[in-house]
Amino acid sequence: MGADTTHPVGVELPKGIRPGGRGRFGPFGGQFVPETLMPALAELEYAYRAARQDPAFRQELAHILSRYVGRPTPITAAERLSEAVGAAVYLKREDLCHTGAHKINNTVGQLLLARRMGKTRVIAETGAGQHGVATATAAALLGLRAEIYMGAEDVDRQALNVYRMRLLGAEVHTVTSGSRTLKDATNEAIRDWVTNVHHTYYAIGSVVGPHPYPTMVRDFQAVIGREARRQMLALGGPPTHVVACVGGGSNAMGIFHAFRRDPVALVGVEAAGEGLHSARHAASLSAGTPGVLHGALSYLLQDADGQIRLAHSVSAGLDYPGVGPEHAHLAATGRAQYEAVTDDAALAAFHELSRLEGVIPALESAHAVAWVYSRRGHWPNGARILVNLSGRGDKDVDQVARREAAASRMGGGADA
Amino acid sequence: MPNAGGGRAAVRRLEAVFRGRQRAALMPYLTAGFPDLDSLPALLAALAVGGADAVELGIPFSDPLADGPALQAAATAALTAGFTLDGLWDVLERTLPSFPLPVVLLTYVNPILAHGTLRFVERAVACGVTGLIVPDLPWVESGPLRRLTRDRGLALVPMATPNSPERHLQRIRSGEGFVYGVSVTGVTGVRDQLAPDVLAFASRLKEAVRLPVAIGFGISTPEQAARVGTVADGVIVGSALVSAMMQDPVHAAGVATATVRALHAALDKQEGRGPE
Predict the structure, then answer these.
(1) A125 contacts in B (CB within 8 Å)?
(2) What predicted TM-score, i.e. pTM, was given to this entire model?
(3) Which ipTM was obtained for this model?
(4) For residue B8, what pLDDT band results from cuts at 50, 70 and 90?
């Protein structure tokens, strides 16, 4: 094997493998799962390829996306924000999707596939509960039984989403192992899948996991970028920058994909938490190292022995110690750049966008806004910045209010 | 068992554990570092005294997605107690040269990558480890690691499951050491009953591959071990042993000896089985 096929951590790879072959993005991705799941992944890949090429499947998906999810979502020219940052800023309004975030694009696609495969039971992991709610919603729509794994910490912090999932008819399993958060909920969902693989479909919520999930989830989210590209042309021209937050990275891959061959800067914004040097962050690409978690080779937060470290972000949706393998590849090849934004900067942007545009962003999406805002006054002439506003912030209002009340009791001034 | 006889000889000695005896070989599993790393030499000795034929030693990992509650808890406890890979190599370097049984390491793939694949393999061989089981490295992803281990006398043990297709069984014919047959579609853990088709599964594996076949996952009691041992070349018992040790960590070595002794006695009594 030549040097060009040897990964920095010593994973030697066959030449020329691509997603669709062995599920690689450069050296990243793959299928690092127990042997029990290999037949299930093969079945899934086969079924997904067949569905993609089936006009009836595509038509049904398009129908649900337009009549139920509310697509296409609009683009808003954010005029007052543009004035504040000194460049034209456009918001792709995924916050206007049914259930309030882009997650539903993926769950509708995957659960249609699950039904087509004859699976009667769907499982999913969830952190803050957004993917859990989106899965429960699609399951209700399609008449499937959904069971959601959620870490005990998150069940406590996100009681309202737990209620929403149950209201939608899903069963919620509280995960008490490990760190009791998203990482462990994902482990538990994989253990369930290993055990019940014959009749159960595992609906992963981001562009992570073993092949074919990163490709499939990206494809289901790519509708965001396809719409946005067309809409931007109608609004006077293509963007110069496309900016999206990155936890696992599904909203970012969703908007990047259609622009991948255009002369457009792609910017992923990770959660720097309390700072990249604090050890309390979730910036796998900015500050992590290559490794395998949840079935794929990508960048991770880990110690010298390869034990996975806990992530931290004020935004539960970015609070994950890994990142999708295609992002690792885009970072390695330089096609996309990855930046990191602290909790405080994201909270400031949460306020700023609410006040300037009347749009309360999800704390996740606020990271993307914050990065754009952080460069105010330094944007080149003619910059046209497209921000993926991946979700609405109603879910975060209570948490932010409590955090600010606590900060003001401590004598700090957390308000932006 | 020291690796002094060189690469191939070490792997052949591991294969020989499963051959040429009247009963199935017994391979108990320990989580390294549970209850702490200092007690590992005494625990290994306790398994040998109880009648183990080989030992599977698990490296604790933060995210063990093939493991049930017992082995997750043991891994968490070991990591909390300060387990490190360097600490493990130190203990194994001191212990294995005079240890009479082959030792097979189980680790998830990420600690290998973090350590550096080549460095991991060389350290394991230098310590006298003769086999490696990586539950989240399926055969189709294992080529690079297999090429490194094969030249150095460390058997990278292929795994097979009840839902493995024929194609997989064909591929793993070129594996080394033994085939780890996972008796259930599921994770490790104590179960009341054996999977109903486990004997048929073991037979299917034995027909498909030339390597010895050891069966693990969900084998808990001496009766279950004896039943699987009527067909399989080896029986692996993990969660039941670790759970017993957890209930009485102060006397973990005594519990380990007693548990293994009972399993050994049941395998010795089994009937209807001839030598290979």
Answers:
(1) none
(2) 0.94
(3) 0.95
(4) confident
